[in-house]
Amino acid sequence: xxxxxxxxxxxxxxxxxxxxxxxxxxxxxxxxxxxxxxxxxxxxxxxxxxxxxxxxxxxxxxxxxxxxxxxxxxxxxxxxxxxxxxxxxxxxxxxxxxxxxxxxxxxxxxxxxxxxxxxxxxxxxx
Length: 126
Prior knowledge:
126 residues; mainly alpha; Globin-like; 0% strand; globular
């Protein structure tokens, strides 16, 4: 997964206007993902991701918030970045798709066992 290319993909999403927003949005999306699973799984996920997406950077501020629903996540990210729901959903799809490309289907299935239902659906559709 090339982080620079991922940022470029997000810059093509309507509503994401600058590289700083794309960068922060990627970190937020991945941070939410690794906060939906146990620490050992989160460490495995982040170990395969590029440098700015480290376990400590992404998960530290969200420890213990494993049960947030997909809907609450979308709402929170929309509010945080001042983006429309459609923009956050499209950005999430892109980021999750790129992350999934780094893992086997068995590894992804292991994450899904720990995630709330809406999150499983979001990961599977990416």
